[in-house]
């Protein structure tokens, strides 16, 4: 044990209360010296003190490049490994937490203030949180929203999701943009050495792993909920004809289903391994291939299912569904440097030259040069020129790389659901 000594001098002027300001120098000034001694622990911290009124750093994020980021923990504790990606959305952290497409990933929010509105159970996009962890700059100590039923920290703890805050998210984002998405290890376990955690980050990879099987439903079910009236939009002129749609759950978000239902669709959601023959037996008006996590090349069974359905019924692919369609048509997909994650990505619709601000969440893209003749690139991401939409009129195919339900995000692309309705309607009329 050492001695922590703090010496200070107090200048006390006995006449300070009886002399005008400023006091004149006086020979009666006294210098009092106080000595405060506290025992130190081996790591230099003072012992015998009351618990600090603030939280100290108790977590580490180690990236595969060897960098170590000290932080404070909230939510669950333990050690997790995942791919670190950044999301540029300003709002909607609860929808992001419950988006199955984030399975196997740590999501870093570039917006510095998170937790301000707490959480409510109406905004969940799936049955649970699938992401590996949440990385933020500043955790709000209060919540201020009339819909709030729980704090973000309690919400994550109940769902066994780790979170860290008071970390330099801007510096990490710059690193990810420069070097690309990195594998990281998040830990609150002090018994684990930095070298051990670094080895974990370098021995795990997200490429080639089937993440869809961990997020899909176990059995078919009917979806009937529409968008609630207070949240509905773009409803003018919407017909109420019923269209029978089979939705393949590769990690589907609830608001995709709500938007389809609001446009007059009767939806049956099926697991990712549901046979194409069983789908065709139901004689649907259309098939939706949903969003989902990970590498499309790691799920060849899903590609085969798509191949068996193409040309027999109109199809609409979103995100992972778009990538699977690209592969089923003979094209190739590739892993992007750091992907697209956020609610503010500009996309140009090449058919009408309209620019849409879109919500996106993907790390893979379709290579348009690999697509066969007849397949049309309908949308392009204006940030990097990547393929953001496809169409193949001969087979009644349409797809988008981004999320037209935009939860969270702008509603510029909601018209895609109307286009799917029109595709099914025209196919029925031509039959």
TrEMBL record:
InterPro entries: CarbamoylP_synth_ssu, CarbamoylP_synth_ssu_N, CarbP_synth_ssu_N_sf, Class_I_gatase-like, CPSase_GATase1, GATASE. It is an enzyme of class 6 (ligase). GO terms for cellular component: carbamoyl-phosphate synthase complex; cytoplasm. Pathway: Amino-acid biosynthesis; L-arginine biosynthesis; carbamoyl phosphate from bicarbonate: step 1/1; Pyrimidine metabolism; UMP biosynthesis via de novo pathway; (S)-dihydroorotate from bicarbonate: step 1/3. It comes from Gossypium hirsutum. Belongs to the CarA family. This is Carbamoyl phosphate synthase small chain, chloroplastic. Residues 57-187 form the Carbamoyl-phosphate synthase small subunit N-terminal domain. It holds the Pfam family CPSase_sm_chain. Heterodimer composed of 2 chains; the small (or glutamine) chain promotes the hydrolysis of glutamine to ammonia, which is used by the large (or ammonia) chain to synthesize carbamoyl phosphate. GO terms for molecular function: ATP binding; carbamoyl-phosphate synthase (glutamine-hydrolyzing) activity. It catalyses: L-glutamine + H2O = L-glutamate + NH4(+). Small subunit of the arginine-specific carbamoyl phosphate synthase (CPSase). CPSase catalyzes the formation of carbamoyl phosphate from the ammonia moiety of glutamine, carbonate, and phosphate donated by ATP, the first step of the arginine biosynthetic pathway. The small subunit (glutamine amidotransferase) binds and cleaves glutamine to supply the large subunit with the substrate ammonia. Keywords: Amino-acid biosynthesis, Arginine biosynthesis, ATP-binding, Glutamine amidotransferase, Ligase, Nucleotide-binding, Pyrimidine biosynthesis.
């Amino acid at each position: 044990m050492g001695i922590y000594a703090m010496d200070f001098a107090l200048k006390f002027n006995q006449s300070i209360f009886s002399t005008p300001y400023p006091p004149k120098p006086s020979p009666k000034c006294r210098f009092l010296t106080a000595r405060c001694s506290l025992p130190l622990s081996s790591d230099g911290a003072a012992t015998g003190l009351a618990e600090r009124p603030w939280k100290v750093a108790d977590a580490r994020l180690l990236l595969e490049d060897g960098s170590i980021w000290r932080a404070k923990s909230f939510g669950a504790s333990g050690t997790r490994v995942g791919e670190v990606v950044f999301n540029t959305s300003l709002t909607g952290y609860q929808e992001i937490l419950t988006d199955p497409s984030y399975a196997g990933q740590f999501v870093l929010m570039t917006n510095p203030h998170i937790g301000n509105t707490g959480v409510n159970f109406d905004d969940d996009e799936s049955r649970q949180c699938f992401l590996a962890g949440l990385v933020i700059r500043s955790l709000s100590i209060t919540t201020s929203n009339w819909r709030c039923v729980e704090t973000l920290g309690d919400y994550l703890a109940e769902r066994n999701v780790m979170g860290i805050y008071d970390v330099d998210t801007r510096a990490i984002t710059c690193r990810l943009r420069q070097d690309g998405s990195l594998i990281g290890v998040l830990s609150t376990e002090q018994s684990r050495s930095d070298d051990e955690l670094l080895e974990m980050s370098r021995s795990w990879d997200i490429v080639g792993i089937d993440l869809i099987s961990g997020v899909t439903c176990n059995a078919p079910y009917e979806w009937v909920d529409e968008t609630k009236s207070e949240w509905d939009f773009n409803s003018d002129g919407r017909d109420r004809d019923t269209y029978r749609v089979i939705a393949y759950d590769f990690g589907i978000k609830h608001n995709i289903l709500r938007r389809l239902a609001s446009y007059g669709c009767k939806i049956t959601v099926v697991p990712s391994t549901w046979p194409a023959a069983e789908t065709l037996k139901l004689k649907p008006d259309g098939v939706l291939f949903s969003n989902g996590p990970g590498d499309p090349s790691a799920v060849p069974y899903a590609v085969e299912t798509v191949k068996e359905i193409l040309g027999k019924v109109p199809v609409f692919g979103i995100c992972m569904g778009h990538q699977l369609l690209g592969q089923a048509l003979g094209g190739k997909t590739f892993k992007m440097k750091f992907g697209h994650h956020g609610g503010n990505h500009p996309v140009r619709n090449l058919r009408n030259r309209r620019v849409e601000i879109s919500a996106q969440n993907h790390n893979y893209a379709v290579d348009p040069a690999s697509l066969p003749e007849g397949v049309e690139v309908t949308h392009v991401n204006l940030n990097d020129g990547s393929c953001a939409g496809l169409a193949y009129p001969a087979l009644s195919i349409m797809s988008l790389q981004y999320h037209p339900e935009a939860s969270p995000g702008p509603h510029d692309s909601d018209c895609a659901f109307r286009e799917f309705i029109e595709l099914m309607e025209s196919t029925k009329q031509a039959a």
